[in-house]
Amino acid sequence: MLLSSYTGQALEAGIDEAGRGCLAGPVFAAAVILPPDFAPAYLNDSKQMTAKRREHMRGEVCREAIAWAVAEASPDEIASINIAQASYLAMHRAVAALPVVPTHLLVDGNRFKPYAGIEHTCMIGGDGRFRHIAAASVLAKTFRDERMRELAAEYPQYHWEQNAGYPTAQHRDAIRKHGPTEHHRIGFRLL
Fold first, then answer.
1. Antiparallel, parallel or unpaired: β 104-108 and 119-123
2. pLDDT tens, position by position, 52-67
3. What is the 8-class DSSP label of residue 182?
4. CA distance 39 to 164
């Protein structure tokens, strides 16, 4: 059973990112504040859910959350400031986009760049322990996958609708054959 919060504060936000290890596309982050009684049976770390369950849960989270926001950092920003800093930038953008100000940020992982005026706690494996981080992982993943499907329509040879920009053999073969696009992350080892 996932926990509802770390601090017990009603406006604690869970934060997670998606796409950090990809070769192409933006990195996405989500911030979610959930009601304390929101406990759907299938909510979990997005990596542990099927695509169908993630999409269903995305709808539930978007309907039932006290507040939620999704943001991104572009491949150009990733190249300019590095993937870790771009992940923090996307997380900060998601927090800034929330319609209410959270009282605490519970961030999945072991590092975070402090957000001015709001205390935070980093939680390794938080997406498998806390509902609001799990919900953030679902939103970040599903919104990013949706973006990669849109980009796949423009660049079908890379099969981003299947690999979401991750370094699969198929994706690397396509880079070898067709070269990188403006959506590939310059500075990453593409081959």
1. parallel
2. 999 999 999 999 999 9
3. T
4. 28
